[in-house]
Amino acid sequence: MSEPQGGLPVGWCLADLADVAEINPAHPAKTPADDDPVSFVPMASVEELTGRLDASRRRPWAQVKTGYTKFQDGDVLFAKITPCMENGKVALAQRLLGGVGAGSTEFHVLRPGPALNAKFLMFRFLQEQVRQSAREKMTGTAGQLRVPASFLEELSIPLAPVAEQQRIVDAIESHLSRLEDAVASLERVRRNLKRYRAAVLKAAVEGRLVPTEAELARAEGRDYEPAGVLLKRILTERRRRWEEAERGRLGARTAVSIDERWKGKYREPPDPDVSVLPALPDGWTWATLGQLSWHASYGTSLRCSETASGVPVLRIPNVSEGRVDLGEMKCCTEPLQLPESEWLAPGDLLVIRTNGSRSLIARAALLDRPLTQAHYFASYLIRFRLVAPPIGPWLVAYWHAPSTRVRLEAEAATSAGQYNVSLAALARQPVPLPPLSEQTRIAKELDRLASTIASSSSTVDAASSRSVRLRQAILKWAFEGKLVDQDPTDELASVLLERIRQETAASRTAVGQKREGAWGRRGRMKRGAGEETAR
To answer: Which of 16, 221, 485, 492 has its CA 20 to 30 A from that of 234?
Structure first.
C-alpha cells in the first residue's frame, strides 16, 4: 500500500485502518485518579450525522473505569449497534473533563496515529458509504445487530498527506457550517408553519377567520338563522334517529305497543355548563358532542392482520390529520357479524380513546366519503354518528384547535403507561356551534390555508432532503480529493506511512532488546546467587 492506488489522487494512498489508528484501546493514555471526575457519554449524548457529542455529564473515574467504554480527547467514537450506527452516531471526543471520558459499551473507539487527522477519520465514518459497508458485516440477532471489531481491522481508508487532511477538514467544516445554517433556517420555517396552523385554527374557533354570519347579515340588511335554531333542529333530528333505531330494534324482538311508551326511555343529552366557557360571537351557541351525535359505540377487539382477508378494520394509524386514511389497513382474522347499519358510513367521527402518547389521545378523523366495501373499526377507537353530517368538517377543525387539545388531554386518565378517555367524557365535551352557512365558509377558508401550509411544508421537506444529500456529496468530494487543491510540496501519504511503519518496527525491536537484556541480567543475578549459596 505504499504506492498510490487506482482512482486515488496523487500523493494519496490506501491504508489499513489498523496501521494508522489504534482500534478499541483498552485505556486512555493517562489514567485518572479514582476521585477525578471525567466526562460520561451515553449513546443519547452523541448527535446523528453531525460528529458532535455532549460531554457535560460527569462521573468519578472509580464509577466508570470498569463496565464502560473508555476514551480520551482526540478519539473517534463509532456506534456499533443498530439502528444507532445506521443513523450516523459518530463523534469526535473533545473537551472531555480532564481529557478523559467513559460511556456506552456500544461504541467502537478509534485512536488516530500521527498519519491520521482525527476529524478526517470522523468525516470518513460519517460517509454513508462506510456505514453501508458496516451494515453488511453486522452480526447478531434482529434488533441486536452489531458491527464487529473485525470490520474495522479489515477496513482500508483513503489516506491523504497530513497537511492536505487538515485543509480538507477545514473545507468540510466550512461547507457544513453554511449547510447547517440553511438547515436551521428550514427548521425555523417548519416551526413557524406549525405555529401558523395553530393560529389559523384558533382564529377559526373564535370566529375571527372569516366574517361572521351576524356581521354579514347586518351589513346586507337581512335576517339569518342563528346557531341556536340549528341546534334545536339537530336535537329534534337526534330524537327521531334514536326512535327510528329503537323501533327497528324492538320490532325485531316483538310487536311494538300501540301507546309507544318505550319513547319515554329517551334521554336528552345535558347542555354544556356555559358558566365556565368563554363568550361566543353573535349567532353562535354552545353544544356538546353528545348533542351533535345520536349514537356512539366502541369498535371490535377481534385480532387483525395485514395478511388476513376478513373485514378491513380502521386503527389508530388510520386516524390522520382529521381525515380517515385507508392506507396500512389490517383485516379481521375471524368473521365479524354485524347488521348493515353498523358498518362505517360517511359522516362517522372516529376518536382515539386509548394510547401510550398523550398527544394522540382523543384525536379524531371524519369519514368524508363512501367506502367501496364494508369497513369497521378497532376497540381503541370510538365512533360517533353525527346527526347532521355537514357539521363534520367544522367539528374536526374545532377538535384539533390548541385550546381544545389542552382540555381533551386533561380529560385523559393514565393506567399502566396508557392514556384513556371515556365515551362519556368525550360526549360531554363542549363544542361552539356557528350558523351552518358560516361553518361552510370557515371550512372552505381552512381548506385553502391548509393547502398553502401543506405546499410550504412540502417545499421545506424537499429542501431538507436535498441538504442530507448535499452533506454526503461534500464528504464524497472530500475523499475523492476534489474539495481542496493539492500541494505538490506535501509529504506523500505513502512516504509518511512507510516511515511510521519503520519507526514502529524499530521501537518494537528496541523494546524487545531491552526486555531481553533485562531477562539476561536477571538470569546472571540468579546464577550468581546460586553459586554463592553453593559455596
So the answer is: 221
